[in-house]
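Ex. 9. Protein: cellulase.
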Amino acid sequence: MAVLQAVLILATVSRILAADTKFTGTGSTGLYWDCCKPSCSWTEKGPWLTHPVQTCKKDDSPLSDFTVGSACGQGGTAFVCNNQQPWAVNDTFSYGFTSTFIPGASEFDWCCSCYELIFLNGGLQGKRMIVQASNTGYDDPTRTIFGVGAPGEKDFANGCMNRYGSDGGGFLGNEGRPLTKRTDCESLPKPLQQGCFWRFDWFLDAYKPNMTFQRVKCPKALTDVTGCIRNDEDKFNASASTNAASTPYGESFSLLVTSLALAAFALAFNI
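Predicted structure tokens for cellulase:
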């Protein structure tokens, strides 16, 4: 019965969100870090006011040529810049960059767009992030996924082995073993440790927690890192949860969706 109630509540959420699923909805998150050139670093991926997501050379100095191929399988020299790791502002709010996929949208819609995420489970309930979509995820084309770029995941990290000439104590590479505790981060190359610590300290090493998302105007804290600003930014305000005029729906909409989704998960998992 509880599961049925949860399904009905989520169906209501889905109907509310159907108005514009490119900008708002529910989905899941994950973690990834591959050291490769982000997909949103190509000039054709979005309507840029400035330029695509900044990339870096092997020594982490910025590249000015956005046509340079990825160092991961393309014979290029472009890597992700190490400052594109998440950081905590306080115990309940963080900034970060994500590998994004939103069904019904495209890279032209999400590349360099910013979103406010409000977590629903996994011990992160009520925690909030504002993230900029710097990459694209292709894990499941039927689901909305925001993969936070935080070093420490074992999959697809051969680019990191190429960059650092190290397997990070056995944690990097497709055959790497997963990190299970904070002290494992100390085995990673020094430039990757900060984001790995965030994974345990703020994200609590949660496994694919669910969240609501809503597009917001990108904060300077994020665009200063990537250098990427879209030409449609003025259509959005700074934060869905702190500014009632931040989206076409306002704060009451954001709170309604969050409340409904939380209720659904509580019923489904009997919590």
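Check your answer against this statement. Helices lie at 2-17, 107-110, 158-164, 190-201, 220-226, 250-269.
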